[in-house]
Amino acid sequence: MADQFDLTVIGSGPGGYVCAIRAAQLGMKVAVVEKMPTLGGTCLNIGCIPSKALLHASELFEEAGHNFSHLGIDISAPQLNLAQMMVHKDETVAANVNGVAFLFKKNKITSFTGLGSIAGPGKVKVTSDKGEQIIESRNIVIATGSVPASLPGIEIDEERIVTSTGALALGAVPDRLLVIGAGVIGLELGSVWARLGSKVTVVEYLDRILPGMDSEVARQFQRILQKQGVEFKLSAKVKSIDKQDDGSLTVRIEPAQGGDMQIIDADVALVAIGRKAYTQGLGLESVGIVPDERGRIPVGPAYGTSAEYIYAIGDVIAGPMLAHKAEDEGIAVAEIIAGQHGHVNYGAMPSVVYTNPEIASVGRSEDELKAAGIDYKVGKFPFTANGRAKAQMATQGFVKILADVATDRVLGAHIIGKNASEMIEALTVLMEFSGSAEDLARTTAAHPTLSEAIREAALMCGDGAIHI
Ligand SMILES: Cc1cc2nc3c(=O)[nH]c(=O)nc-3n(C[C@H](O)[C@H](O)[C@H](O)COP(=O)(O)OP(=O)(O)OC[C@H]3O[C@@H](n4cnc5c(N)ncnc54)[C@H](O)[C@@H]3O)c2cc1C
Question: Which residue puts its alpha carbon closest to atom 2 of ligand 1?
Fold first, then answer.
């Protein structure tokens, strides 16, 4: 007889594993099917976690080379031990994926390793080298995530022409790295290798970097990256990449709107033009689910698909491809299946670029408010006027708060600066509670902290900041 479950989750990324844990906590008998040998999905194995391990290590490498002497720490020039840096990354990944396996045991979740496919209503087939197995399940959550998007005519080998996966595991620092795509992943991984010694050139089809982010923040960030040695070719598209016998790559680019071809030589090319929803081999047709034009699974407000008792969450559905968005949807759908009122507030969903400085934002950008014709005011405060930032040699960037003119309610916040990823949480909580700029301006910030810049920006929405 087939195993019987209340819920079977296909995919164990941040959407799937968090959903499984929440459902188990709510009393359901839960199974998870994962085709990879370890749990945790893209995020833990080849995404958020390994990239942050390399970003952290490479940032310290650069600091040791540049800032230490100013702080009175005299050391000889730091030597890169890339193999050990990769060991640190791999250990970080292992600790995290093992943590998920521990949580599955703790919550009595049954884990199946193999390709999961829907074999009709209430049935999931698990295919592995051990054969096929059918699981019976009242509810199914699809959390199969996404994979890197490809460029026509450009073949990925994960050694010289790589996706983010290959870029997280290069065996040597390339002299010249070409990054195709100036989105979050391209700029984060470009930063890693630039700090370790690569000459990085970023080619972007649009006329700006970080599409979708506040354009003032993006402009300032581009200037900072240029000072760090990163070169940008905007409004340009890659036409072809040829591998030469000497190991180099010849990359042909041309203006986005057509025009004269330009040749760039590189040693490694990173294709980082976005990610696409992944539903291959899932058997959606067996239950009549039809993906949209971008391959994503259409869902209603309660994450239900067109098939009864089958839900979908995370990167495989519409919305920003972020781990915490997938996690929040995982919790919400588990609660909905349990008869509760799970809900995700997409209006207060933070987003971060983990470079140096970091960029963090929540809510709407100034461009969006302008386009929507909303009457807003801007409170902006630079880190050059913040005491802690001076002490830490981290004066680049600013905090920008956008508030409604009529109600003072905060509509969006954007931080470019050190530790922006941690600071944005205060603004996310404020927005979750529909707080105003005055609420923030009247909340004490410990002195001296970088977070004082947030309060000062909030004061700028009213009578003015103190320290500027
Ligand atoms: C380099 C990089 C850095 C990133 N950094 C960040 C970051 O800092 N912050 C952030 O918020 N987001 C980041 N992301 C994005 C983040 O990783 C994704 O948004 C997140 O992993 C999506 O979670 P998910 O659960 O929807 O899918 P995934 O994490 O993609 O997990 C899907 C899982 O399903 C499995 N699967 C697929 N099909 C089947 C099947 N048929 N049967 C069984 N298993 C299947 C896959 O093997 C995978 O393990 C990063 C991504 C990359 C690539």
Answer: 47
146 alpha carbon to ligand 1 midpoint, in Å? Answer: 6
What's residue 3's pLDDT? 78
CB 185 within 8 Å of CB 211: no
Displacement of CA 63 from its chain's centroid (Å): 24
pTM here is: 0.97
CA of 291 from ligand 1 middle (Å) equals: 18
Closest residue by Cα to residue 141 from 32, 298, 280, 275: 32
| 134 phi, psi to nearest 5 deg | -105, 135
Q: Could you report the per-residue pLDDT of 26-56, keeping only the tens digit for each?
A: 999 999 999 999 999 999 999 999 999 999 9
H or E element, residue 217? helix 215-227
Pick from 148, 165, 143, 147: nearest CA to 12: 143
**Both structure tokens of 254:** 């041309």
SS3 141: strand
Residue of 158, 168, 159, 221 whose CA lies nearest to 193: 168
Ligand 1: residue whose CA is nearest its atom 27: 145
Alpha-helical segments (H) within 26-80: 41-46, 48-66
- Ligand 1 geometric centre to CA of 66 (Å): 35
Taking CA atoms only, the protein residue closest to ligand 1 atom 38 is: 144
Please tell me the distance from the alpha carbon of residue 343 to that of residue 336, in angstroms, as a whole number. Answer: 8
